[in-house]
Every structure is written in structure tokens, then in C-alpha cells.
Write a structure and sequence with these properties.
Layout lengths: L2 H12 L8 H22 L6 H12 L5 E2 L1 H8 L3 H13 L3 E6 L2 E9 L1 H22 L6 H24 L1
Length: about 170
């Protein structure tokens, strides 16, 4: 029995009249979140990238040629504050990985575009992350059922989050 099972056993003992069965899956998810964040840092550190910085590069890459988006699109897709996006873009721009270009649709705005160096680094990071992820998950075999269940669970959290945003 693992520490999470011990935790559930202790809560059942302390609250004998309550169903504590929702707690172990949530504790496991919380622990996975911590470990996943550490995994991302470990894979990206040799490339001198943080997961947040890579998120910007990856989002620009997924936008397709010419690999550019507005800062507001980065903000909404990455669910970061505009100030946070500005800091990330400034840091990536200083490294020559992105550049700001005038927005042809909005004279006051700009677009953020991957540079050749940014595209090359994104490709290296993607290859590293894909390889490390494959190695990590290989012992688990086929993940189709697990992925479906995770999708359902994520849907429940997103539904709750959307409802809270409507109230706010």
C-alpha cells in the first residue's frame, strides 16, 4: 500500500461516516502535476528553456507559417496575464528566438514571430520532449483508455472552471 492509500485509510478512520473515495484520485493527480512540472523542467533545462518559454515557442510553431500571433492570442491560449506574456516575449526576444513585428491589421499593435533560431530551438525541444515522454510512458503500453479517462476528468474540471468564470 502506498502513501496515498495510507492517507485515504487515515481519513476513513477519522471520518468513518463519510465517503472519502474522491480524495485518492485527486491526490494522485496533484502529485502527478508536481512530477510533470519537474519532468518538463528537466527535459527543457539543457536547452535553457522554461516550460512557460517553451509554451510560447510551441504555440507560435503550431500557428503555422509565418509562425506568428498577436500578444493577446498568446495571452488567451496560454492562459497567462498580459504582463506575464510581455515578460516571456521580452526574454525570448533578447535571446533572438522571437521578434515583434508591426501588426498590419492594427497600427497600434504588434505580432510575435518565431525567428529561425526560435524555430530551430523549438524543434530540438519538441524532439527532446517527445523522446523523453515516450521513454517515460513506454512501460505503460497502450494509453488509449487512460487518455479517454483523463479527457473525461479534464472535462469535469474545465466545466467547473467555466461555471466559476461565469459567476465572477
Amino acid at each position: 500500500m502506498g502513501w496515498i492509500d495510507d492517507l485515504a485509510l487515515a481519513w476513513r478512520r477519522e471520518y468513518p461516516g463519510r465517503d472519502v473515495s474522491p480524495l485518492p484520485p485527486l491526490v494522485r493527480l496533484a502529485r502527478l502535476g508536481v512530477l510533470l512540472e519537474a519532468f518538463q523542467h528537466e527535459v527543457l533545462a539543457p536547452l535553457d528553456l522554461t516550460p512557460a518559454d517553451y509554451g510560447v515557442l510551441a504555440l507560435l510553431r503550431r500557428a503555422g507559417p509565418p509562425y506568428e500571433l498577436t500578444p493577446s492570442r498568446l495571452t488567451s491560449n496560454l492562459r497567462r496575464s498580459s504582463g506575464g506574456i510581455t515578460k516571456m516575449v521580452t526574454r525570448l526576444e533578447a535571446r533572438g528566438l522571437v521578434r515583434r513585428t508591426p501588426d498590419p491589421d492594427d497600427g497600434r499593435g504588434c505580432r510575435v514571430r518565431l525567428t529561425r533560431a526560435g524555430l530551430a530551438l523549438q524543434e530540438r525541444a519538441f524532439a527532446s520532449f517527445l523522446r523523453a515522454s515516450g521513454e517515460l510512458l513506454a512501460p505503460l503500453g497502450a494509453l488509449r483508455d487512460t487518455d479517454r479517462e483523463l479527457e473525461r476528468l479534464l472535462g469535469a474540471f474545465e466545466l467547473r472552471s467555466a461555471a466559476e468564470e461565469e459567476v465572477a
